[in-house]
Amino acid sequence: MFIFRNLVILVVVIVPKKNLESLDIGYDIVVIGAGAAGCFLAKNISSNYKVLVVDSRSLPRHKACSGIVVRQGKELLEPFRPPESIFLKPKEIHIVYSDWTHKLEREIQKGFWNTDREKLDKWLYELALKKENVDIIDNAKLIDFNYAEDKKHIVVVLESNGGVKNIISNYLVGCDGALSTVRQVLGVKPPKRYVAIQELIKAKGVNKAYFIFDEEITDWYAWVIPKGEVIDVGAALDPFKAREKFAQFKEKVKQKFKISGKGFFDSAMLTRPQSVKDLVLGEKRVLLAGEAAGLISPSSGEGISFALRSAKFAANAFNKNFKDALSEYKKEAKPLVERLNNKFLKSTIISNKQKRINLMRE
Ligand SMILES: Cc1cc2nc3c(=O)[nH]c(=O)nc-3n(C[C@H](O)[C@H](O)[C@H](O)COP(=O)(O)OP(=O)(O)OC[C@H]3O[C@@H](n4cnc5c(N)ncnc54)[C@H](O)[C@@H]3O)c2cc1C
User: Fold this and answer.
1) Which of 8, 39, 273, 326 is the most exposed place for a label (fewest CB within 10 A)?
2) Is the CB–ligand 1 distance for residue 330 below 6 Å?
3) Cβ 182 under 6 angstroms from ligand 1
4) What is the pLDDT of residue 110?
5) Could you check whether the bond before residue 90 is cis, i.e. omega within 30 degrees of 0?
6) What pTM, to 2 d.p., does this model score?
């Protein structure tokens, strides 16, 4: 008999990444998009349901974003104990509303979280990945969906690396952002869109987030935000004049903030809903959450808290009333729609010269 002493057997269990071929054919819920909305929905859904999350990008993903998380978002994330690594300096940030057209400035003590969006997304992705009832697949794209003959199931058509697979699901949830395919296939008009361009420039000396209104640059807003070692200089712009307007904005920022040099460029589309008509929570067995539903602030472009809250409401709806999840979701999401309704008013104030001046002077 041999006695093995001091023998350490290292067993490394490698869980292979799911791909199109290895996916099951049927799920209770298919979620399109593994951003803030998609991952938080997967995290909050009951383990009774078999869930598939699909993203067209490589996960964990990179998304152009300033990563400011407002109070409503903080409240949802705090119970999951976010690691310190997702924060950038200064971790808690105050806001300065700066109207460059009328030379007005107002500071508000907000204490929003200043996160590294890539790290925040990675953490959320890992929270979803840990759930045994959730399969996640990346580099796979939703290209179409349709109701099955029984009208109770949806045939979801996915494409990856030239291969196509049909998945059968009870529900489909579009968490697929500003350019939502789910919304498009439903035949619902997208809200107005802007191009958000940002440049991350190595610089010091800025320690508040500046939300800037400058009519020469955009009818929405621009920003200068400290992010650790760099400063995020960005603007939400009319797609037809984006490059030229960004260059003009950068020149102004250089002078006002004494910043020089070139940084890393990034951009993405940004939705700006105009009225409650742009907020669409779904149809029959298809739900929309986050920016795909039009849930983003029309005044500040703040969308992370809306993505998280709508995802939580959709998860609650499935957990409470799977049979009629959409009606339940519409009930749950009422406070979100109400909050946005107030913001539509604020958005018209911000776009109106005299009203904005009055607001800044209050
Ligand atoms: C430059 C910029 C700065 C911003 N700054 C802030 C900020 O500081 N604070 C804030 O709160 N908000 C900010 N926002 C808005 C915020 O980023 C979004 O509102 C938020 O990420 C929306 O989350 P979501 O999960 O709904 O969609 P997204 O985060 O956009 O995720 C959608 C996902 O769906 C995937 N997808 C899309 N189509 C398909 C398909 N057909 N098949 C499979 N997958 C698909 C995409 O790959 C993506 O990963 C900013 C946006 C931009 C562009």
Assistant:
1) 8
2) no
3) no
4) 85
5) yes
6) 0.94
List the chain domain ranges. Answer: 26-354
Q: Which atom of ligand 1 is nearest to the CA of 61?
A: 49
Q: Ligand 1 pocket, 191 CB below 6 A? A: no
> How many angstroms is it from 326 CA to the middle of ligand 1?
22
Check if 141 has its Cβ closer than 6 Å to any atom of ligand 1.
yes
CB-CB contact of 178 with 269 (8 Å): yes
CA distance to 50, 81, 252, 264, 358, per residue, from 134 (Å) = 6, 21, 48, 35, 50
Cβ–Cβ < 8 Å for 175, 249: no
Question: Cα of 292 to ligand 1 centre, how many Å?
Answer: 9
Instruction: Decide whether any atom of ligand 1 lies within 6 Å of the 234 Cβ.
Output: yes
Tell me the C-alpha distance between 237 and 217, whole Å: 8
For ligand 1, atom 35: residue with the closest CA:
33
Q: Report d(CA 44, CA 359) in Å as an integer.
A: 39
From the candidate CATH numbers 3.30.200.20, 3.50.50.60, 3.40.50.620, 3.40.50.720, the one assigned to the domain spanning 26-354: 3.50.50.60
Pocket residue to mutate for ligand 1, from 18, 30, 66, most atoms within 8 A of Cβ: 66
What is the radius of gyration, based on Cα positions, of the chain? 22
How do residues 267-326 score in pLDDT, each as one tens digit?
999 999 999 999 999 999 999 999 999 999 998 999 999 999 999 999 999 999 999 999
Query: 344 falls in which pLDDT band (50, 70, 90)?
Result: confident
Distance from residue 328's CA to the centre of ligand 1 (Å): 25
From first CA to last CA, the distance across the chain in angstroms is: 87
Q: Which structure tokens are listed for 331?
A: 């009930």
Distances (CA, A) of 147 to 151, 152, 153, 359: 5, 7, 6, 49
> Can you tell me which residue has the tokens 């003009």?
248
